[in-house]
Each structure stands twice: as C-alpha cells, then as structure tokens.
Amino acid sequence: MDRATSRTRRLVVALGLNIALAATQLVGGLVAHSTGLLSDAGHNITDVAGVAMSLLAVRWALRPRSPSHSFGYHRGPILAALGNAAVIAVITVAIVVESVTRLVHPHAVHGGLVVVVAAVAFVTNGLAAVMLRERGGRDLNMRSAALHMGGDALGSLAVLGAGAVLVANPSLQWADPAASLVVAVIIVIEAYRLLRASVDVLLESSPADVDLAELTAVMGRVRGVAEIHDLHVWSLSSEVRALSAHVVLSGHPTLEEAQVVGDRVKSAIGAPFTIAHSTLELECERCIDGEVDPCLMDSVGDSRGASSR
To answer: Disulfide engineering: 129 pairs with which of 62, 149, 239, 260, CB 3.0-4.6 Å?
Structure first.
C-alpha cells in the first residue's frame, strides 16, 4: 500500500469516528447542560470539516503536474493545513465567549453524564490521534489532522475532570466552563503551531531542520566544486523540498565534465537533506551577485534598461 492510499484510509476512518463522536457530544451536552461537552462537540465538528479538508488535499496532491502548474499540486495539503488553523481559531473564539457567559451565569450541569460522554470522547480521540500520527510528523496536512485529534483528547480529558468534580461536589458549577477555557487554550496552542508551520512553507522559508551551513559544506566537499553561492532552499510541501544554487567549478571543465560534477552534487544532498528537486547553475568563474534583490522585478527591469543603453 502506498503512502497516499494509507493516509486516505486513515483519514476516512478518522472522519467517521469524528462524525459519530460530535453527534454524541452534542446530544450529551444539550441533555447535561454542559458547556464543556458542547465546546468539545463544537471542536469535533470543526474536526469533521478539517479531516474532510485534509482528505481532499491528499487526493488533490496526487493530480499530475501541468504546464500551468509545473510543480504539481504539492501545496494543496499546505493550504488545507492553513485552512484548518483558521477554522480552529474561529471555534476558539466561540468557546471562550460561551464559557465566560456560563461563568457569569452558571447552569446546573449533570456531572455523571458529562463523565460518561467525555470518557468516550477521550478514548475515541486518543485512538484517532495515534492512528493519524506519522513517524517524523513532517507532513503538515496529516500533522494538522493528528493535532486536531490530540487536542480533542486533551480537551475531553479536561471535561472528564470537570465532570468528576461535579459528581463529587455538584455546587462547583464553575468547573464545567473552566474546563471549556482549558480546551480553548489547547486549541490556541495547536492553531498557532500549525499556522506558523504552514505560513513558513507558503513564504518559502528555509526548512527549519536544514542547516544551511552544513548543506553548503557538503556541496563544497564534492570533488570538482570550488565554491557555492546564491543558495536557496524551500519547501513545496511538507515532504517535497527544492534547491537552487550557483556552483563554481574547479578549473575549466568541459560541458560533459561539468554535468558529472552537478550530478555528484545532487546525489550528495538528495537523500541526506531530502531535497527532491535541485537546480544548479554551473560556473567556471564566480558570477557577481548583484546588490539589488533579483526578486524585485522593477529593479530588474531598471537594471536591464540601463544595461541596454
């Protein structure tokens, strides 16, 4: 079974579990008058949308590349992860508002029912989180789904604790909305981490686990390489990385010899740094790096105009 098929199946199972769990929590929260259960149900409803989004993203990423999308659709899962972070943020606001309202105007809560439903939710979410977790946790799309489940499991544990407190002392009605606020804190932390990682990919930041100095050193140690400059590394997705660099070659090799050196460089960095796509500009003499950022197109146009006069 390939990785995409495995991820699809696990996401489908997680989606089914969340639909059943959200319905159970919603009914239980209404019957027990528990904001903790209702907030947990609300979060699970967003998980249904989030897991569905992740599932679609996995299928989207498999679409073949085209002339208009030369790198394919690897960014689809990143957009799904970013969308999940946005959805999490919205539901957090709703949970906080409702929890504060209940703290000011407490309602009677049936602690026993809260304990039962929260215990079921904790076990279900915990199993889903373990099922979706991947070794290394590098795929942001799967990581977002797993974080949803893990956050829900911790939130359900907080609600379970609140229910136990209410069973022991029914007068402590503040425990239930307080548990909801704990859930909100968990969600905020989850959303922030996911948002930051997703934005880093979309901004084409250098991957956090890639040491550029070490990467440059590895490339420089390849036989036939004199110097490396203008090095850029970025992520197309959580698992697909690209690199571009200028490679100054020793001596004045023939085109065939230069190509051999370029292939050696790609082999040296491919597996150790998980770089799938490398573009190397091979030079016999170091070119002059311009003082103007080449990404500023107006400046590029001005410089071209100036050079043509």
So the answer is: 149
Tokens of 117: 């439903």
> 121-172 pLDDT, tens per residue?
888 888 888 877 766 556 677 777 777 677 777 777 877 888 788 788 877 7
Pairing of strands 277-283, 225-235: unpaired
**Joined tokens for residue 245:** 């660099």
Residue 13: phi, psi to the nearest 5?
A: -65, -45
Question: Phi and psi dihedrals of 245, rounded to 5?
Answer: -165, 155
Strands 225-235 and 241-249: antiparallel
CA distance 133 to 147: 9
The model's pTM is: 0.62
With a cut of 50, say whether residue 260 has pLDDT above it: yes
Q: Among the residues of 169-207, which ranges form H helices?
A: 175-202
Cα angle 116, 121, 122 (rounded to 5 degrees) comes to: 100
Domains and CATH numbers, the chain: 3-202 (1.20.1510.10), 212-308 (3.30.70.1350)
Which pLDDT band holds residue 83 (cuts at 50, 70, 90)? confident
Structure tokens at 99: 């929890």
Q: Are 244 and 279 in contact (CB under 8 A)?
A: yes
In this predicted structure, what is the pLDDT of residue 225? 94
Q: How do the residues of the chain divide into helix, strand and coil, expressed in percent and rounded to 5?
A: 65, 10, 25
- Phi first, then psi: give them for residue 234, nearest 5 degrees: -150, 170
**Look-up of token digits 């495995």:** 6
For residue 26, CA distances in Å to 6, 58, 97 come to 30, 29, 18
